[in-house]
Amino acid sequence: MSQVQAPVVTVDGPGGSGKGTVTQMLARELGWHLLDSGALYRLTALAAIRQGVALDDESALVDVAATLDVSFEPTPPGEPAKVILAGEDVTSEIRTEICGDNASRVAVMQPVRDALLQRQRDFRQAPGLVADGRDMGTVVFPDAPVKIFLTASAEERARRRYNQLKEAGVDVNMSALLEEIRVRDERDMNRSAAPLKPADDAQVIDSTGLSIKEVLDRCMAAVSQA
Ligand code: C5P
Predict the structure, then answer these.
(1) Per-10-residue mean pLDDT, the chain, length 226
(2) Domain boundaries, the chain
(3) Does the beta carbon of 124 lie inside 6 Å of ligand 1?
(4) In what residue span(s) does the Cytidylate kinase domain sit (predicted)?
(5) pTM for the complete prediction?
(6) Is any atom of ligand 1 closer than 6 Å to the C-beta of 134?
(7) Does 3.40.50.300 match the CATH number of domain 8-217?
């Protein structure tokens, strides 16, 4: 008997393209589950540091990724899920720039990616899934009926991140932030393991100059046309 798979909308793109906010809104609007795959790479980096594992020790990192003791606890609609690592709430800790940078270092390793693959696919459950990441449409859910690739200029992404951090009371330097974004993009796009790029059948949406509502409307239109 063939099993019908739950539908998936994949949303890939660089950091700061608005993916996080848009995927949360999209999941809420559709009443579907949400996979924040970046959180799994961030958690792998954080757990490694806590366990004293060096970020270039590939085989130890594979163990860390394969045995991550993580749960995502539901929060009120529109808020990011609470992320619990080994019983501790690390929701804010995994959002720091340093954790994002460490995540992108461990994410270049194919065996680490392999160790996280099934955990990501397990999120595909009825009534459907919105999957946020870099390789959702190319590697993790290549058969997804709707694939979106969300971009924005590096300057716009740095500006958004700057405002987010300012609001959170974090003191940041705009040019340092722009440089960090460029370095991370470079690493994500040029790695050999699942590089950041649109799937051949992805719809590319450039969110530069668009409001979140406009981006959400375009994503919803893509879903309803599928
Ligand atoms: O999306 P987020 O900023 O949380 O991702 C952190 C890092 O994790 C990215 O810079 C990228 O290197 C890596 N990542 C990945 N594949 C994904 C999601 C994130 O390689 N599907």
Answers:
(1) 82 91 93 95 98 98 97 74 94 92 95 98 95 97 97 92 86 90 90 93 94 95 92
(2) 8-217
(3) no
(4) 9-224
(5) 0.93
(6) yes
(7) yes
